[in-house]
Amino acid sequence: MIQTLLISALIENGQNLRIPNDYTWKFTLECSNCRERSPKPVVFNGIDKDSPGDNDRVSVNFYMTCKGCRRQATIDVLRINITEITGTSPELVPFATFECRNTSLVEFFPSDEFEITSTESDTIFKEVDPSDEWADYDEKGQVSVSIEEFNYKLD
Ligand SMILES: [Zn+2]
Predict the structure, then answer these.
(1) Looking at residue 153, what DSSP letter applies?
(2) Any idea where the domains of the chain sit in the sequence?
(3) Where are the coiled-coil regions (predicted)?
């Protein structure tokens, strides 16, 4: 199953809210077979790949065995930063896609690895957590850059 993470935010004086390829993803999951939910969020890196079991032909970003039904679940990050998140657009836009086998993404937990560029200069802010009413000052462009009302949806 292909799942899409959509996000929206009210951005002031900032453009191109984005994440790096090696972003650390954090989700709670639900088994597609027995509906068991992961008690804690699972964490995986967007570029580290591993082969579950002895099958070297399959390489994924995350795998686990369901505690309920013992089936193996895998997640692979297909694309990130699909749509540029810019300006004060409260509309949900596709941000990343995942290939999920035997599991589905239920909840997304953003980390402070987001980056955003000022609209008034080439200043880049790193280590941004968009879910936590973030704001900083762009000295070069002389504006404050902020992110509010972060929202997401998993489709
Ligand atoms: Zn299960």
Answers:
(1) E
(2) 2-154
(3) none
pLDDT tens profile 82-134 = 888 887 767 899 999 999 999 999 999 999 999 999 999 999 999 999 998 99
pLDDT of residue 87: 76
Decide if 98 contacts 76 (C-beta within 8 A).
yes
| Amino acid, single-letter form, for residue 128 | V
pLDDT at 36: 94
The DSSP string of 64-116 is: EE-TTT--EEEEEEEEE--S-B-SEEEEEEEEEEEEEESEEEEEE---TTEEE
Q: How far, in Å, from the CA of 95 to the mean position of ligand 1?
A: 28
Q: Are 126 and 18 in contact (CB under 8 A)?
A: no
Q: What is the pTM of this model?
A: 0.92
The structure tokens 């309920």 sit at: 68
68 alpha carbon – ligand 1 mean position (Å): 5
Cα 38 to averaged position of ligand 1 atoms, centre (Å)? 10
